[in-house]
Amino acid sequence: MGMNNNEHKNNPMHGVKLVQILEELEAKYGWETLGTFVNIRCFQYDPSVKSCLKFLRKTPWARAKVEELYLLMLKVQEKNNESSH
């Protein structure tokens, strides 16, 4: 049972809500850029957090891609933080 805690520590996605992921990605990149990163309609046509949430909850492969992109963004931010110290 003690292993679970470590797993969560190593998983930056743990406890992160999908809505939070979408809001952070949209704030950083904007819908248009997100639509070029992940080729899904909800990013490209009349995008909103609400419509994308609905789609991603029903579409595991798309959700996985969006989460991947989020992790990539976190990695880049970490690198930038390290180099600015």
UniProtKB/TrEMBL annotation:
Source superkingdom: Bacteria
GO terms, molecular function: DNA binding
InterPro entries: DNA-binding_VF530-like (IPR018668), SAP_dom_sf (IPR036361)
Name listed for the protein in its UniProt record: Transporter
